[in-house]
Amino acid sequence: MIRLVCASANPDKVAEIAAVLDGVVELLPRPPEVADVVEDADTLAGNARLKAVAICSATGLPAVADDTGLFVDALGGEPGVWSARYAGEDATYADNCNKLLGALGALGDGSDRSAEFRTVALVAWPDGRELAVEGVCIGRIATAVQPGGGFGYDSLFVPDDGDGRTFSQMSADEKHAISHRGRAFAALVSALRGPPS
Ligand code: IMP
């Protein structure tokens, strides 16, 4: 089995990634002594590379990192690469969702609420090789926060491939099957396995 150190220490994300990679990639935890990387690239791939290369260099092992953004059409692609810090440096998930609802509300009733999540997953090897893949999930932003589980903008995002529920109202398996992160890591599994022989 391929062994990769997971650059993320976010338990919400690690659980999702581990579920998708189960049986193909053994995910090793990020060593706690490795400092956080400043994610200051202006693209998802750039941030994923910063994180994967930092963990790979610190451990001497291949590492995988991902970076995700929510791109809202009517807001010119905001919050995009800055999704985690949309409402400020120490913003909570609720702060970010409220800011997004406010920004769309200011555009008036009937305005375009289409959006997409994009995830770039990138593996960096100690010899300098890299592999990057992308997963996309198209949907729209609900008009109010919906209850349920999940994290980030899950309580607002209604995927087009679903049945009208937000990600927060789906089970973890339902979300993985159609989510940006699920798709990115499924693509990563295919790429790591190589073409069928
Ligand atoms: P990250 O690059 O994966 O850390 O994602 C950046 C931000 O996007 C997170 O802080 C969340 O607010 C949001 N986000 C990422 N993935 C998801 C998801 O699957 N659902 C909802 N929000 C997400």
What would you say this structure looks like, in words?
Helix content is 31%, strand content 24%. It is an alpha/beta fold. It has one domain (2-193): Alpha-Beta Complex (Maf protein), CATH 3.90.950.10. The longest helix is centred in the N-terminal third of the chain and has 16 residues, at 44-59. The mean pLDDT is 93.
Can you tell me the CATH architecture?
A: Alpha-Beta Complex
The helix count comes to: 5
Helix content: 25-40%
- Roughly what fraction of the amino acids lie in strands? 15-25%
> What's the quaternary structure here?
single chain
Ligands in the model, by name, code or SMILES, are: inosinic acid
CATH topology: Maf protein
Mean pLDDT: 93
Provide tags for this entry.
about 200 residues; alpha/beta; Maf protein; 5 helices; 7 strands; binds inosinic acid
What is the topology?
Layout: E1 2-6, H1 11-21, E2 25-28, H2 44-59, E3 63-72, E4 79-80, H3 93-105, E5 114-124, E6 130-141, E7 157-159, H4 172-178, H5 180-193
Parallel strand pairs: 1-2, 1-3
Antiparallel strand pairs: 3-4, 3-5, 5-6, 6-7
Helix pairs in contact: 1-5, 4-5
This protein binds inosinic acid.
